[in-house]
What we know:
The chain is of the alpha/beta class. It has a single domain (2-132, 143-340), classed as Vaccinia Virus protein VP39 (Rossmann fold, 3-Layer(aba) Sandwich), CATH 3.40.50. Helix content is 34%, strand content 27%. The chain has helices spanning 39-45, 47-54, 58-79, 106-116, 173-176, 182-188, 205-211, 217-226, 242-249, 261-270, 274-295, and strands spanning 2-9, 23-28, 80-90, 93-97, 100-104, 120-128, 137-139, 147-149, 153-160, 192-194, 232-235, 253-258, 302-303, 310-311, 322-330, 333-340. A ten-stranded mixed β-sheet has the order 10-6-9-3-2-11-12-1-16-15, sandwiched between helices. It has a two-stranded antiparallel ribbon with strand order 4-5. A hairpin with a 2-residue loop joins strand 4 (93-97) and strand 5 (100-104). The longest helix is centred in the N-terminal third of the chain and has 22 residues, at 58-79. The termini are close together.
Amino acid sequence: METTHRVYAGDARSMTALDDSSVALVVTSPPYPMIEMWDDVFRDLSPAVARALDGGDGDAAFEAMHAVLDDVWAEVERVLEPGGVACVNVGDATRTLEDSFRVYRNHARVGDAFEALGLTPLPEVLWRKPTNSAAKFMGSGTLPPNAYATLEHEHILVFRNGDEPRSFEPGAKRRYGAAYFWEERNEWFSDTWEITGERQTLGDDGARERSAAYPFEIPYRLVNMYSVYGDTVLDPFAGTGTTSLAAMTAARDSVGYELDADLIAAFDERTDALPEAAESVLDERLAAHRAFLDERDAEPEYEAEHYDFGVVTGRTTEIQFYDVAEVEGADGGYVVEHERR
């Protein structure tokens, strides 16, 4: 199997390289409005943001920043095929402006924007980011009533483009081959995930910190949950390319847009480690499945057609995994050769 991947240096508010209805899945994490590390990015994109921040008007700054994102979401709706899914990882923000502290509910504002474009909201996931901090509060500490809960979660919002899910021909091999294990379904489709950044050993630490990249496990799960072999996955805020790496590992095509050329260069470096890292991901999934079978009371009723283990449901008998055999640069992007595991 061969997949293709490209990251464009450009503004996702105008994704001219993409045709209408040309991608099946969007997985992204945008700059979060009202998080100070992103102020300069929004200032450069909108004079209204600069005026609001300089004037200490938090409400106006919040809305002006989201107006920038709204233009990207409109492009997402254009390029996403009917029934295709968009997954947006976004966190809320807490901030003090003009001596007034409050929370800015980014997840709610993004949800409103997608619904206004006609996308259908689906159940979302709360991503909890466990910390070792003993300080689980902000504000006045142990004195009531002016302490505030610490935000230790982000939202993974999920939307479908239109009212109806995608349809496939009966027995579609690219769909059945892309099945996930029964126990993976139970974990992945829980509405709360606890994921840390262990897999961020892939790539350049400095660039990743500037991009605030989410852990590899998040886009990897979402790509497997909401796409099939042959699909194209889009990330309009590509950063250091974590979504593209997840798509490569899962044997899907990918496209990304990124304004910062330095982050694109960091993605180029990350592809060097991909074959070994992708092999490790599949090793862990297969080992976890075998361990699940060993610990399970009942013997599985079905056998996987391509592997020497059982599976719990008949719909997973055709499951097929692919290793990353080689990554080659091609026409400003990459071609990845995959081999059957």
